[in-house]
Amino acid sequence: MKGKEHEKGSRSILEPIPLDLKKKMDRLTRSPAKSDQKEICDSRDKGVGSDKSRPGKKLQVILPYDMEVETLIRLPGKSLMRFLCVSKTWSSLIRSQRFVASYYAAKPPRFTVTFTNSVFSEPKRLFIFSGEEEVTSSSSSLVANLDMTIPSVTMPFGGYKYSSVHGFMAVNDRLKFIICNPSTGQVITFHCKATDTCLGYDPVGDQFKALTLLTSTYAHNPSFMVHEVKRLGRGGIVSRTQVTSPPYHPITRGRCINGFMYYGASVPAETPPTPVFVCFDVRYETMLSFIATPQEVLLWQAFTSLIDYKGKLAVVVPICQRTGLSFDRFNLWILEDVTKQEWSKQTFELPLSLPFNIGMGKRMISQGTNKAGEIIFSPATLPDRAQPFYVFYFNPVTKSMRRVRIHGVADTEEFWSRYGLTGICAASFSPHHVDSIAFL
């Protein structure tokens, strides 16, 4: 009877888990710290109507920690979140810092698509899609799946919308700053004292931080700028500190690359204002000296998108045609040496023109590259109601470009009706998002 109760209890616990993973789970429910050898007991009834059972068979299985990690690391983040309730051992393993780091390192980059169902009217909702890039660079279509939606959130109508930082995504909604993890479903919202907030990550200390510029951009000739640094963890803000810098006027959204946060600015003390890049050291929480920047790099002001190009800060600057409604060339500016403040410039011609119309919302912008090194251009808004969503992949080596349809991104009437999408829907595409199962 005891053996039957044990079997019944085991089935009730494992019932929600996919059948193809049941055998792996049976071997992993015991802690490797107690023993590397697992005992799997197979108890069978002696016969129908009998209340006796014969001794179970015992099988010695060696399952080291590395094998457990290798098995779990192959699973999607959402599956691991369900497995947290399997046992305390699994929960401890999945939440451990060592496993979280191994999981992040093993996952290939994905693309994400984010948009809101309205820019100028209620209701507001943030939609987050993601999908896998194809192994080859010849694909003409990709598939995106809806990961999560966040109510009462919108994105500004402009160029650069949100950032993907070490598995987390962040967006400004006026004085609200929203951070979410599509893999775990965690959402953190907190109010800031100002509208300019950026998310950064310190890879050495494994610490997320948010930087807010407190000094108003409308202040008349301030002697210095005040910033607030928020250390994040345990579901919110752990601590706050303030740092100062020489005066400047911010122009672009921030971008975190290898533990440093960059954003375009101008030094207003000079006439005409000098374009620079402000560099913030996330680990040491200090403002480094301003990086001298060619005027052309920040030509498009707030519509400028900063990208991570092979681990370096770069800016894609469209060269518009005479009408100003489209571009068929662009300059790629790369910050080659931060210390020496040296920039390189490459000019590329596109096989076809891309729209750059601000008024009609048809602007195509670049927010990064994929693993193959292709520079990707994506629309700043969704197309007209229930139309295909396209992005363009440009190969700087072969000078070729391909149009890729992202299936599933609000491309049916049923989707628009279900979620009440209306009018202009601000959109953003990130080609280099890596899944993480970390919690803040």
TrEMBL record:
<dbReference type="Pfam" id="PF08268">
    <property type="entry name" value="FBA_3"/>
</dbReference>
<dbReference type="Pfam" id="PF00646">
    <property type="entry name" value="F-box"/>
</dbReference>
<dbReference type="InterPro" id="IPR013187">
    <property type="entry name" value="F-box-assoc_dom_typ3"/>
</dbReference>
<dbReference type="InterPro" id="IPR001810">
    <property type="entry name" value="F-box_dom"/>
</dbReference>
<feature type="region of interest" description="Disordered">
    <location>
        <begin position="1"/>
        <end position="54"/>
    </location>
</feature>
<dbReference type="InterPro" id="IPR017451">
    <property type="entry name" value="F-box-assoc_interact_dom"/>
</dbReference>
<feature type="compositionally biased region" description="Basic and acidic residues">
    <location>
        <begin position="20"/>
        <end position="54"/>
    </location>
</feature>
<protein>
    <submittedName>
        <fullName>F-box protein At1g30790-like</fullName>
    </submittedName>
</protein>
<feature type="domain" description="F-box">
    <location>
        <begin position="63"/>
        <end position="99"/>
    </location>
</feature>
<feature type="domain" description="F-box associated beta-propeller type 3">
    <location>
        <begin position="119"/>
        <end position="415"/>
    </location>
</feature>
<dbReference type="InterPro" id="IPR036047">
    <property type="entry name" value="F-box-like_dom_sf"/>
</dbReference>
<feature type="compositionally biased region" description="Basic and acidic residues">
    <location>
        <begin position="1"/>
        <end position="10"/>
    </location>
</feature>
